[in-house]
C-alpha cells in the first residue's frame, strides 16, 4: 500500500523527463536560433501627416492599391525593399516599404501585414504616414520623395534600462555606431549588422544595425547616418536604442536581434575609410 505513491511517481518519471526535455527543445529552438521566426513588430514610431483637402475614400482606395502592389513584390519576388505608386482623381500616392535584411521573407511579409493594417490609423485624409517597427518601415506620401534622406522628423528612442556596471559599455557602443556610420553608406545595399564584445563585461555584446533606404544616394545615406549617429549621445549606456529617419535606421542592443551568422564583415570598409582620411605624409 505504502508503495503505491512511489510506484505512481516512478511510472510518471518518464513522462516528467519527456516533458522537461520537450520544453527544453522548444526553449532552445527559440533562444539559440534567436530571432528566427519573429517579424519584430515592436513599435518604434507612427507618424501621420496633416490632413488635407482630399477625398478620404479616394485616398483610401489609392493607398490600398499601392499597399497591394508592395505586398505582391515582397511575396512573389521575395523582395525586402519595394516602392509603388498610383494616381486617382489626380491624387498621387507614393509608398515605400523596407525590411531589415536579417528577417526571413516570411517574417518580412508578416511585418508588412502588421504595418499595412496599422498605418491606416492615420486619417484617410492625411497626406501621408510613416510607421517604423524594429523589423520594418512603411511610409506613404502624396509627393515623390523616395530619394529624400532626412527630415526634421528624425529622432531616437532610448531603451528604459541602463547598464551601470560595465565601464567600457559607452565607449564600445560609440565605436559600434561610428563603424555603422562609416560602413553603411559604403556597402552595396546600404546594410550592416555587427556583433562586438564589450571588454571587461562578463560576456556582454553590442549588436549593431545600420540601414539606408535603397532609393537614397550614397551621399544621402551618409547624411542620414551622421544625423542618426549624433542622436545616440543621449543614450550610450542603455540596453537598446533606435534612431529613425525617412532615409535610414540605426540601432544597437545588448540583446541579439539577429543571428550570429547574419553579421556583415565591415573591416575592409573601415580600412578604406582610415586610408582615405589619412592625409599625413
Ligand atoms: C545560421 O544559423 C542557423 C542556426 O542557428 C541556421 O539555421 C542557418 O542556416 C545559418 N545560416 C547561414 C547562412 O549559415
Ligand atoms: C482598403 O483595404 C482595407 C483592408 O484590406 C479594407 O478594409 C478597406 O475596405 C479598403 N478600402 C477601399 C476603399 O478599398
Ligand atoms: C492603431 O489603432 C489600434 C486601435 O486603436 C491600436 O490597437 C494600435 O496599437 C494602433 N497602432 C499604432 C501603430 O499606433
Order of helices and strands: HEHEEHEEEHEEHEEH
Question: Architecture of the largest domain, according to CATH?
Answer: 2-Layer Sandwich
Q: Give the class-level CATH name of the largest domain.
A: Alpha Beta
CATH topology of the largest domain: Killer Toxin P4, Chain A
Structural class: alpha+beta
Helices, strands, pairings?
Blueprint: H1 3-32, E1 43-48, H2 56-77, E2 81-88, E3 91-99, H3 105-118, E4 128-133, E5 136-141, E6 155-158, H4 169-183, E7 191-197, E8 205-212, H5 218-231, E9 240-244, E10 248-253, H6 267-277
This protein binds 2-acetamido-2-deoxy-beta-D-glucopyranose (3 copies).
Quick tags:
five-stranded antiparallel beta sheet, alpha+beta, Killer Toxin P4, Chain A, disordered N terminus, disordered C terminus, 6 helices, 281 residues, 2 domains, elongated, 23% strand, 10 strands, binds 2-acetamido-2-deoxy-beta-D-glucopyranose
Short précis:
With 281 residues, this protein is α+β, with helices and mostly antiparallel strands. The chain is built from 6 helices and 10 strands. Helix 4 packs antiparallel against helix 5 (218-231).
Can you describe what's shown?
Helices cover 38% and strands 23% of the residues. The protein is α+β, with helices and mostly antiparallel strands. Strand 2 (81-88) and strand 3 form a beta hairpin. Helix 2 packs antiparallel against helix 3 and helix 4 (169-183) runs antiparallel to helix 5. The longest helix is centred in the N-terminal third of the chain and has 30 residues, at 3-32. The protein is elongated. The chain starts with a helix and ends with a helix. The site of one 2-acetamido-2-deoxy-beta-D-glucopyranose (NAG) has 4 residues, from helix 2.
